[in-house]
Amino acid sequence: MVHIKLVSKDGKDQEIHDVSELEKRVKERKAAAVKINGHSADLNRIPSLKDSDIVEIIPLDSDEGKEIYRHSTSHVMAYAVKNLFPDVRIAIGPSIQDGFYYDFDIDRTFTPDDLATIEKQMQTIISKNPPFVRKEMTRSEARSLFEKLGEPYKVELIDALKDDTVTLYEIDGFIDLCRGPHLESAGRITAYKLLSVAGAYWKGDENNKMLQRIYGTSFSKASDLKKYLLFLEEIKKRDHRRLGKELDLFSVNDEIGAGLILWHPKGSIIRKSIEDFWRNEHLLADYQILYTPHIAKLKLWEKSGHWDFYRENMYSPMDIDNVAYEVKPMNCPFHIAVYKTAIRSYREFPVRYAELGTVYRYEKSGVLHGLLRVRGFTQDDAHIFCREDQIEDEILHVLDFTLSVLKTFGFDDYNVFLSTMPEKYVGPPEIWERSTNALKRALNEKKIAYEVDPGAGVFYGPKIDIKVKDSLGRQWQCSTIQVDFNNPERFDMTFRGSDGRNHRPIMIHRALMGSLERFIGVLIEHYGGAFPLWLSPVQLSVMTIADRHRAYAQTMVDTLKQRGIRVELDAENEKIGNKIRKSTKRKIPYAVVIGDKETSEANVMLRKRNGENIGPFSPEELLSLLQDEINTKK
RNA sequence: GCCCAUGUAGCUCAGUCGGUAGAGCACAUCCUUGGUAAGGAUGAGGUCACCGGUUCAAUCCCGGUCAUGGGCUCCA
Fold it and tell me: What φ, ψ does residue A571 adopt, rounded to 5°?
């Protein structure tokens, strides 16, 4: 008779006195593994449970369960690769978000055909249902084992371990160093798919050898795998680079340069709509708007510290009349210069300067990616100058403002991160401490849950980053709020306090959208190219049935255009089905068909891009309906 | 920057085991004037990314460059 406590997340703990009873429960609950006294363990450890052990089931569909499942899949994949390519050296193969990978060192390159072959080999392994057998041995035993097996990466991993005993798992003779736990046998793996091959440095260090990484994913239910693969397809369909081309929004050009965006007319009008909105909101929120130059003397950047701390992202200086100039990677020094054109008083605080400032930063060629990662971009930047005791209020103000702007774009789900002092930092640690606390207090006041990201702050101060979730649930970092007590010092900024003496202001940098390029890239994917009316490049397409309807349709288009609607006339020599199709493919929100009926009745039906018809509306009703939807930004 | 893959008409892609290329869509002209996701015909469009090498001959083979994509790393 044993006494085992089975604990569960819902609080319904149970005493179990029979190991077979526990095994039954484990099956019922579709466990991936268990936790014994808080430590995760394989299911086949259950028979050796001791009296008064506390057991918790890790279900397959929990995050931890999925991790175990995928980790086991990655072992099977490594085994399959080793079978097919005996001279491969295996490196490391963890589970990751939505899947797993395994890194291999091999003299040939894996091709997509290889992936299919490896998948087949995995199936062969899985169908034999070999158990995952856990082994323990001393470090030196394990070390010599892997040396004998010709696995230098495993040896290196073992050397980095601190424990005296290490654990290994064996499936069908294939031994891998692994902490575990694992599924009890490979046969439990039912739905998996290898997705891609890519290069990856050993331990992520570019000084190390480049290995080949195979990415894959696995699910305990085939339907979940299918759902995930459909999700990947949906991501592809929404890819902003693809939609940007299809909808004629932007391009990049070899002759001009990588990472430099050409905004086409359709993309520019989206951008202009966002910029207009942005400026209006900033004026309403008591910001003052600035315009500043694109280059400045190198000396300025030396003074600001960018040349010391940010040089690897800056372009080489250019020579102007024997003086070195730099294209700007940031806007802050310019805003500081504006601040310093007068003696400032605490009475004007907080001073909030905002600018849509275009900056240029060097990015390694391999990281450039459509609109999301570019070399020239426009920040929706602002700098707030205030007293240290105003930080908290200002952060609150910025948070409110940011969240309301993000909400306009349908982002009302987000995660917040607080980044603290990094290794390379400037300024006294006490000020870091105080301003980090001010950020914390503001977040707490707003009751915003946040995660601390230790050491991820900028060199000049702590920051709050906001990651929004798009319509597919993916996270994007756009907004950032950064405290800076370094630049006011460097530029000897002052303000006259109520005591008549000069004091040092605090500076807050913030961007809501981050960069317009990136933000619009995110928006394209978020909306899948089907922009809300206020952002749509063409808001309404008016199409004629026959040539005799052209004059009436033209009048209507002219009238709407005069009233600010972005409307296009399609009076081409085509059938109405063709015109509808074109307008739908371009994701134009509304279409109006003008035929005999409309010309005689002076009423129109409005066709939404999803095919639904609403109406009929008189021309005035149509106009006010459109204007209302544009104004409310729905 | 590094590893791998890719670069053919405006777009999406075929193709040539070395003898200077083809489809669909888009575009132009003509016919058709048709009521809610593709009417028909005809036509125009390409130094096959760029530079060099091998060859009688290169879009194809080789080398380099640039760009794009998947990653590593970094970040707005």
Answer: -115, 25
A575 CB below 7 A from strand B atoms? yes
List of chain A residues with pLDDT < 70: 1-2, 9-11
Q: What is the pLDDT of residue A466?
A: 94
Of A54, A78, A96, the position where a domain reaches its end is A54
A74: CATH: 3.30.980.10
Q: Measure, in angstroms, how far nucleotide B32 C1' is from residue A620 CA.
A: 35
Task: Give the residue numbers spanning the domain of A477.
Answer: 250-527
Number of domains in chain A: 4
User: Which pLDDT tens digit goes with each residue over A24-39?
Assistant: 777 777 788 887 877 7
Residues 6+ apart with CB under 8 A from A118: A77, A80, A81, A84, A194, A214
**Residue A296 CB in 7 A reach of strand B:** no
Sequence-distant (6+) residues with CB within 8 A of A541 are A567, A568, A569, A570, A579, A583, A586, A588, A590, A591, A592
Residue A325 CA and nucleotide B50 C1' are separated, in Å, by: 32
Tell me, yes or no, whether A532 lies in a domain. Answer: no
Output the distance from A242 CA to B52 C1' rounded to whole Å: 34
Q: What is the pTM of this model?
A: 0.91
A402: left (phi over 0), alpha (psi -120 to 50) or beta: alpha
Work out the percent of chain A whose per-residue pLDDT is above 90. Answer: 68
In a domain? residue A30: yes
- Residue-wise pLDDT tens digits, A290-339: 999 999 999 999 999 889 888 889 999 999 999 999 999 999 999 999 99
A46 shares a domain with A71: no
Domain boundary among A178, A199, A233: A233
